[in-house]
Amino acid sequence: MVPSERRHAVNNDQRQRLDPYVDQYATRAKTMQASEIRALFAVAARPEVVSLAGGMPYITALPLDAVGELAGQLVTDRGSIALQYGSGQGDPGLRERICEVMALEGIRAHPDEVVVTVGSQQALDLITRIFIDPGDVVLAEAPSYVGALGTFGSYQASVVHVPMDDDGLIPEALEETITRLAAAGRRIKFLYSVPTFHNPAAVTLAAGRRARILDICRRSDLLLIEDNPYGLLGFDGEPQRALRADSAEGVVYLGTFSKTVAPGLRVGWALAPHGIRDKLVLAAESAVLCHSSLAQLMVREYLASQPWQQQVKLFCELYAERRDAMLDALRSSMQPGCRWTRPGGGFYVWLRLPGGLDAKAMLPRAISARVAYVPGTGFYADGSGREYLRLSYCYPEPARIREGVRRLAGVVEAEMELRATFGTWPADGSA
Ligand code: PMP
Known about the structure:
Layout: H1 3-18, H2 27-30, H3 36-44, E1 50-51, H4 64-82, H5 92-103, E2 114-118, H6 119-131, E3 137-142, H7 146-154, E4 158-165, E5 168-169, H8 171-183, E6 188-193, H9 207-219, E7 223-227, E8 251-256, E9 267-271, H10 274-288, H11 293-305, H12 308-333, E10 339-340, E11 348-352, H13 359-368, E12 371-372, E13 374-375, E14 388-392, H14 398-422
Parallel strand pairs: 1-12, 3-4, 3-6, 6-7, 7-8
Antiparallel strand pairs: 2-9, 4-5, 8-9, 10-11, 11-14, 13-14
The structure holds 4'-deoxy-4'-aminopyridoxal-5'-phosphate.
4'-deoxy-4'-aminopyridoxal-5'-phosphate binds next to α6.
């Protein structure tokens, strides 16, 4: 046995001992891996670590008493509905409210076109399930939302990234990618995009590009999945007009109450043309029979009885203050040569390290310095992105954000000195 074979045999043996079913999983399960964020949560949750990693909304700012009262009343007064099975498409009253929410982004929709899902993450799963055969191509921005990449991978999609710049997805690059893949005989099923306050890149698709992207999709018969969890969390002016507002047939719009109300309720939705809507309902029924009636009614009652738009405004003010704290701290302490985006909304800053530094290799040193972030590689299906990292400002208080950035700047500085002294070394420790 040559050494590499021996090493492989030992690894297989170890894997068998850890999990005796390791060779029995379906091929699709083999592509399922813990995301970079998941692996981080345990260490990042330690109180001494300033976590700039996870994108957790600041739930403490919700009127928790009022929400608690509302939940209690629902169970006491309408428990026979709230605790019963419901429809696979979702509560009709909630779907009406969802249409009102989407109207704020210029969308005119009928409740019949809406499917309520377990967060927009389930909508992503259902869309992928009904469209993707193994090997089908999904186009996604570079970088792209880690949870979507995980879902696409679990259905064995082949993700092809399309570059972005400060104005979001680049129309010419989209066109070129479609042409190249068509010439190679590849089957593209849809384009997945987070056009507004992107996770993780923190850029927004410029108004002037929106019609062009829709036009390219229309001409190429390409379905567009518009994932818009942060659309109402802008810091200046009115909400962006959604892509779906100008294309009812070519776009499936995904929304969620995770960022505007509470992620623990797990209420999201998909707005889709009728044919796709029908398939989504069938897929949802086979996955969960129906969504939680209690959670749906809680959101419905919250929207009906609470000043929820005022609450969203309050969230925006709070996140804007934290964004400012992060940008100020980056400006005053980060190494020259680092580049970062300046978000107009949402939760994230996307930072590029200078001089070929590797954010993944640097992470253990950052954790030792008691600060956590998400390395950029998690947001690319092709393993690139080592020089990037994502910072979240949504959860920590401004003073903690400043402290976290100060610690991070120290780590980057030490890393640059090491690199200047010793040059590069492999990230996996192999020599
Ligand atoms: N899409 C994007 C871009 C996200 O950032 C998130 C949450 N981080 C989701 C979808 C899923 O959100 P949820 O399932 O809580 O609605």
